[in-house]
């Protein structure tokens, strides 16, 4: 039977861990009470028996023992504690305080236990009320947003019907719209920009003017702000307030539309104009079909945002419900332990007050969950409850033992095939590393390290799905990552064995050397395969992330984009190997079978600089984008780190061509500066360590791993792996085979360092989320309330 403490540890919400009942501390208090109730030593018991026997025995002793046992049983059933509720000073929150009615022999320990228990109950209540209030406010905002969306959809539908019915009339009531952008950069909301659309009312018929007034009234009722609110009154009265140059009354509507998805630029999203929503298409559009298509697309964009916000709200309410139930079970378990140790019945009295407390008695969260289900079913699922539950309660993928079986199978196949390849290569005397094999090996090593990261994040309960904003239903598990890695390497080594066999059979070198190119094409085809097989959601999400990185800084930067771009900075040797491979197959060098041909061209040598700079450039542009969005100077400092890395990489490449004392000094200075810069950022910013004021010496206050020595060893290992560039300036001279093997070994060390870095980077992010009690991601809504400006 699993202990409740382990069960609680496995089920609690990691980001809210500090807000849960401290069950482990309460258990320590119960153990102190148990130690205080130790039985008397045998000598004291014997003395008490001898003292009672001096007066002899009586025939009334059985009767006395009966009544004494009756009195003791009645005292255990009576209330031994009294729980009082009182208002907290300076607040409207209630706090609980327990008074001991029954006198205990170990009164100090029992009093300390109930003081701690009262503190935990008050903590749980206050946290629950704060989160409940937050979710209720979010629900009110979303209801208002949904009302606005429904009004806009109704207006658009009526407008389309009116356009179809009046085919001879190409104009529309309401006049001309003038648009003006007003984007104000904010510290934390760069993706939101104000959008002003001015509704100009000319000489319009009364029926059309009344319809426009009805539209405006419906939107004002739902909180849409108008820039000039008194113009509407003057229009009703026939006044000329707010006239423009043509003496036409004008009023302006302000609707703020934030980014709908992380991958849309601000200009692509903030184009939902009032003109497009309720106006006819522009003149020149036949039949108005094109304009209606644009309007529908923009309405769908806003609808998708509101739907995502409802899904996130429902998820948060589910977490709050779990929080309530787990804490109730924790209070029940710890009170039962106290009753057993103290031989008293304190749990019934205390649990009655716990059940009356707000986190148990309040049903607002449950009612709001039911309301969200009804709203989602009606407006987003076409009254299909199964579809609603698919969005609100996505089913988790069950881990299959077949994945574990195939991981073991392909691991065995890889070891066997590699042994066969080594024997055949040794016998044929053609054992020489090629570029294509290095590409596959480095990529497989990175996949393996990512699988290790996933395993460790799961073991330490680091919620990487929430941090990266992955969908738990289709995100990769560590077994999946290992399966992809082993399958990948088994295919590569199998192709290598076939390559040797065909070469021994007498096939021409051009035919045999095409095998790696064919294998690369197969892998690319599998990566972009449109069919829902072989982890399609993961493959397409990976491609979207790579697109976002390649187009930096045009796309909004998320943590997963930063994380992936950091991986690319550790795979510069792989990118250079991919350049060599492309040169080998595209430039036709395989016909002469001279690998050195690709190294002799000037264009090739210049491309080495570009490929070495690209990952650092992408990360620098991401930092620049975040600085523009957040106005955080730390982002400029982070960008400086990648600029220094670019300078050091360029100096090392130049020194490889011009080995003189000047470039040696330049390499030494730039590389040392970049390394110190990177180490500082690794330890202080990315890992959150080296805090001199921390309770954990030179670490941080909150640590996931219990063994502190692991952190100190990780710091030392990261320093050693960071200075591997020293090999490039020490002037080692090897044969071609040994030199390439050394380069591959150093590239592998950098991949291992990156996998090691990944764990601590996400651990620091998780600790930050725990400190902020951030278990539900904030969502943006398409329409801004009038009071928000």
Spell out the blueprint of helices and strands.
Blueprint (H helix, E strand, L loop, with lengths): L3 H8 L11 H14 L5 H12 L7 H17 L3 E7 L6 E7 L6 H59 L11 E6 L11 E7 L5 H16 L3 E2 L4 H6 L13 E5 L11 H4 L4 H5 L10 H54 L4 H10 L1 H4 L2 H16 L5 H8 L8 H28 L6 H25 L4 H5 L9 H27 L4 H4 L1 H14 L8 H15 L8 H11 L2 H15 L10 H4 L1 H29 L2 H25 L3 H26 L22 H14 L13 H36 L18
Antiparallel strand pairs: 1-2, 3-4, 4-6, 5-6
Helix pairs in contact: 2-5, 2-10, 5-10, 5-13, 10-11, 10-13, 15-18, 16-18, 16-23, 16-29, 21-22, 22-25, 23-25, 25-26, 26-27, 27-28, 28-29
Protein name: Phosphate transporter PHO1
GO cellular component, one term: endomembrane system
GO biological process, one term: phosphate ion transport
What does this structure look like?
Residues 165-204 have a biased composition (Low complexity). It comes from Linum tenue. Residues 2-352 form the SPX domain. The protein has 789 residues and is mainly α. Helix content is 65%, strand content 4%. It is built from 29 helices and 6 strands. The chain has helices spanning 4-11, 23-36, 42-53, 61-77, 107-165, 206-221, 231-236, 266-269, 274-278, 289-342, 347-356, 358-361, 364-379, 385-392, 401-428, 435-459, 464-468, 478-504, 509-512, 514-527, 536-550, 559-569, 572-586, 597-600, 602-630, 633-657, 661-686, 709-722, 736-771; strands at 81-87, 94-100, 177-182, 194-200, 225-226, 250-254. The strands form 2 sheets. The chain has a 4-stranded antiparallel β-sheet, with no helix packed on it. Strands 1-2 form a two-stranded antiparallel ribbon. Helix 10 (289-342) runs antiparallel to helix 11 (347-356). The longest helix is centred in the first third of the chain and has 59 residues, at 107-165. The radius of gyration is 35 Å and the shape is globular. The relative contact order is 0.08. Residues 51-55, 63-77, 170-204 and 225-294 have low confidence and may be disordered.
